[in-house]
Amino acid sequence: MLSLTGSGLLWLLVACVVVSVAATVALWNRVRGHRVLRVVQRVLLILLCQVTAIALVAAWINNNYGLYTTWADLFGNESGATVAMPGPPAGRAVFTRASDGTLQTYVHGEVSHLSGQVLVWTPPQYDQPAYQHTAFPVIMLLHGVPGSPTSWTEDGGMPSALARMTADGAVRPAIVVIPVIDPAGVDTTCSDVPGHANATWLAVDVPTLVRDHFRVLPGPQGWGLAGLSTGGLCAVKLAMQYPRLFAAGAAMDPDPFTGDASALPDPTTRLHNSPLWLAGQKPDVSLLLATSAQDPISPVGNLVSLQDAIQPPTTVAPLLILAEGGHNWGTWQRMYPTVFPWLSLHLAAPGPERH
Fold first, then answer.
1. 155 Rama class: left (phi>0) / alpha (psi -120 to 50) / beta
2. Do residues 236 and 274 lie in contact, with contact meaning Cβ atoms separated by under 8 Å?
3. Which of 92, 151, 297, 355 lies 20 to 30 Å (CA to CA) from residue 208?
């Protein structure tokens, strides 16, 4: 069965729209019979066009905002295979194992009071006997807006891309966590605002979920962030705001570091959530900034402005500037071979589990 959030469903619906419109044009004047019958047949053709068009738009909106993640979720019939992960009784989460190898859950954050989807992938070593008492670093992947956690799996080739880099030795084994960055579809560029504590969701509730159910390294050297577009801005911003949690942040084609007035209309809130302002706080984190010379949404000057504002002990890697590429997954996937090995080297290697 086609995935509800897969690109395959979108292309199928595009084909249905094209076929329904073509059929309507072809059959409109070929309908024979009584006048009432012709009217009914034409109404049915119009309805067919409308239904397929609405289904396409609905699927696109669902893909971007992650409203429903599976067919069972859509129809209220969750009967798929589930995995109960060990953890504190009050915080036990139920994960559904997807065909791409990720564990998926939908949780309510006790601190932020927000709810959202979280995907988790563990490397092959995680379940091997030799690693049964080993804790692993965590890489959090942050999607763009519009977007959803499944954007990384459906369009970004994750976790397969990272699994290949791990198998090749370019990246050390790590747990991958992909949370929704805008619960309920409210974009605050991963910032806390009245009624939507999105930063707390990402920096408190999601890490708590992961620590409670997986063997992860303690301390900031065990946690890193990578994001794209709005998620790229968030990866840098959250690392700088929470240096006691994250050691490093990598941004691919990040949104402007000055902030987004539509997401954060209050000037003071926007200023204090800007990486340019946070640079003056001198957080002890490492950053990597990447874009394409052709990307109008994330111009090179945006990266240079933050690079110039960085002060020790904050460090920033040499800028990664691709000569060609737009604001799309093809460009971001070409950044993977630089971004993820860099991030892996700035995190601790898997080590003994601490109790």
1. alpha
2. no
3. 151
* Cα–Cα dist 58/64, whole Å: 10
pTM of the model: 0.78
Tokens 């309805």 — which residue?
A: 47
* 213/205 Cα distance (integer angstroms): 13
3-state secondary structure of 238: helix
Instruction: Give residue-wise pLDDT tens across range 315-332.
Output: 999 999 999 999 999 999
63: which 2 tokens?
């893909």
- Confidence at 25, pLDDT banded by 50, 70, 90: confident
Q: How far apart, in whole angstroms, are the C-alpha atoms of residue 152 and residue 231?
A: 11
pLDDT in tens, 157-185: 999 999 999 999 999 999 999 999 999 99
Q: If you search the block for the tokens 């995190």, which residue do you land on? A: 347
Residue 160's nearest CA partner among 118, 217, 99 is: 99
Q: Is the peptide bond before 283 cis (omega within 30 degrees of 0)?
A: no
Peptide bond into 313 cis (omega under 30): yes
